[in-house]
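User: For a reading group we're discussing how well predicted structures match intuition. Take Uma2 family endonuclease. Before you show the prediction, I'll give you the sequence so everyone sees exactly what went in.
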Amino acid sequence: MTGAVNFPTLTLEEFLKRPETKPASEFVEGRIEQRPMPQGKHSRLQWKFCDAVNAVAEAAQIAMAFPELRCTFGNRSIVPDAAVFVWERIPFDAAGEIANTFAQPPDWTVEILSPEQKTTRVIRNILHCLNYGAQLGWMIDPDERIILVFRPAQLPTEFREDEVLPVLPGVDLVLTVNNVFNWLKGQR
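Assistant: Thanks. Here is the predicted 3D structure of Uma2 family endonuclease, as structure tokens, for the group to look at:
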């Protein structure tokens, strides 16, 4: 069951000290909101998206996609379904390894709408990312077979069927909406 749990005096710092939950919980405007448990279509789209981005961007050190990465910024702690960071913004620790803590918005945030999830909640997380510097947001709706694309200071744009989706500059990836939803068919 998803929903918000109100803690009148809970701060972001207190939330971050709490143990992680499965599925992940988010901290939004002083409330803890648990994300829905991913199901088959959601998991497949998430994995294939990250794999597609990383296949063209990681080795060249252009960008990297992370599934369900906690991003804490702007008094929120959210867990996008996929978070893409351009290489220069990926935090690395002293050992040269990817850091555990990402205290910034992704450059590209992707949310995959689950059947029991509220659309406005998902959109609010995308808008929060854009308000704090994200360049691009996608909301993938498997039931409607559309992808809404969000960009800073622009109205959302609806993409369908064979329309080519926008990606981050420098990421050499050409995807149509049909390409994305064909990932659900799997391969034999």
